[in-house]
Amino acid sequence: MLEIKCPYCGKRSQNEFSYGGDASVKRPELGKEISDKDWDDFIYNRKNPRGKHSEFWHHIAGCRQWFKVLRSTATHEIFKTAKIDEEL
Amino acid sequence: MQKYSILSLIKNAFSNHQNWEVAWKDPEPKKEYDVVIVGGGGHGLATAYYLAKEHKITNIAILEKGWIGGGNVGRNTTILRSNYMWDANGLFYEYGMKLWENLSQELNYNVMYSPRGIINLAHSDAQLNVYARRGNSMRLNGIDALMLGREELKKKIPFADFSASARFPIFGGLMQPRGGTARHDAVAWGYARQADSMGVDIIQHCEVTGFDVQNGKIEGVQTSRGNIKTKKIGLCVAGSTSLLAEKLNMKLPIEAHVLQACVSEPVKPFLDHVVTFGAGHFYCSQSDKGEMVMGGDLDGYNSYAQRGNLPTIQHVLSEGVAMFPNLSRLKMLRTWGGIMDMSMDGSPVIDKSHIEGLYLNFGWCYGGFKATPVSGWTFAHTIAQDRPHKLNEKFTLNRFNTGHLIDEKGVGTKTWIG
Ligand SMILES: Cc1cc2nc3c(=O)[nH]c(=O)nc-3n(C[C@H](O)[C@H](O)[C@H](O)COP(=O)(O)OP(=O)(O)OC[C@H]3O[C@@H](n4cnc5c(N)ncnc54)[C@H](O)[C@@H]3O)c2cc1C
Ligand SMILES: [Zn+2]
Description:
The structure holds 2 protein chains of 2 kinds. By secondary structure, chain A is mostly beta strands. Chain A has 1 helix and 6 strands; from the N terminus they run E-E-E-H-E-E-E. Chain A has one helix spanning 36-43, and strands at 3-6, 10-13, 18-22, 52-58, 66-72, 78-83. The longest helix of chain A has 8 residues, at 36-43. In chain B, helix 2 (42-55) packs parallel to helix 7 (184-197) and helix 2 (42-55) packs across helix 10. Classes of the chains: A mainly beta, B alpha/beta. Chain A binds chain B through residues 1-2, 13-15, 18-19, 21-22, 36, 40-41, 43-50, 53, 55, 71, 73-76, and chain B through 242-243, 246, 251-256, 300-305, 309-311, 344, 400-401, 413-414, 416. Bound molecules: flavin-adenine dinucleotide and zinc ion.
């Protein structure tokens, strides 16, 4: 069972959270010319690394805040968590 | 190659089964091959077999970083079916079903193909409508499909919860009678043995670490056992695809996720079919040994760990108990996990790439075992002829660019949900 530290509530068990995917993906900027490739990279293409992965989680059965987690996809070790507007 | 038969079995019994030929050799890698297949899972082995058999290309190496059958081909719950709605999937998997029907004879290896029928349960009128639509689409493509009512289901799966207090009452279901199961190890071993006998080198404990690309063309691979020259590479590494793609500076529309499965202690026969729960994600069948083979949801976050977490098993099994209450009395024997190459639309890619001589086969999600024969068959064609076969021409990589997604479930690009 993962133990995830919500930046607002502290350590809680995995059951209280839901996953939100790769947090390094950035939406292309509004109002600018957007190439097909930029769209593809935003919507479909992923680095999908083995190792450190920054990702979104949602404390859905708790404070219901979204936040960021730096976790290893190889060992599931969690290195750090941060609020959505903070750097990981 | 020694032919397996009742006679060879009797003959070898007299020498205490000490004199069987090895099923495949253990060669040293050569300097150069016509085709190198990366990954000795079901798809890699089948691809090499069909390259040799259908296209007479036999100077082939299969490079496997572990041992053949140690990946997902030996970790799945062996369900075979072609109950898809979209033509691209339906026609592809249906061709696969035809290959399954004859596979034991073709490989001279008993893959224990068991067309016991797969039943998808519906728990509401709306769900029945969706299944009817899917069943009709299947029949239009010549695939067997049958709608079942509650009373018929009571006869087929009497141990499901038909009580008045069922949390998710069973309204009916969709059945593909020819769906079923096969023995996964036998599929890997059967393809390996035949490919080996036609001259394919199966090289285990040989990890591909990089590629030699010059002027946009494949010239070779780098491996833990030295460099090997080749003009054609077929990538069949399932859950590891992104890791090798990274070495080619490619980002692909997939994520790696762990899927778990489990088996119970063996019990007397009580379930004749493969059954899926419609109110969540759970399915089960009973193995020939009597174990209940069960699976369901992904763990739900990117993972290369090849093992999962207890909350998911607990969640999946609670659905199982809702469907078959008597499962709650069984002890679990073991659980395990495998790394899925979850694609963004739930369908695979079997395609050429922008690099000449590099061919791609990935995105199998949790349904790639049933595809083993047809994936190998079409991928062999794609590699040998340097163009896709009609059966895989829609499984392109650039469909994500052009918008021609094959989104059977219509759930969008959240791979961990689909
Ligand atoms: C729990 C579970 C249940 C499943 N249930 C079903 C089911 O019921 N029905 C169904 O149809 N499908 C099912 N699947 C999916 C199915 O098993 C896979 O889609 C399919 O096996 C993938 O193709 P493969 O056999 O070629 O993969 P694998 O057997 O994983 O083969 C890939 C191989 O590539 C090797 N490799 C990786 N990197 C390298 C490298 N750098 N160099 C050399 N070799 C490398 C790996 O070691 C591995 O052996 C299930 C999967 C799991 C995990
Ligand atoms: Zn919180």
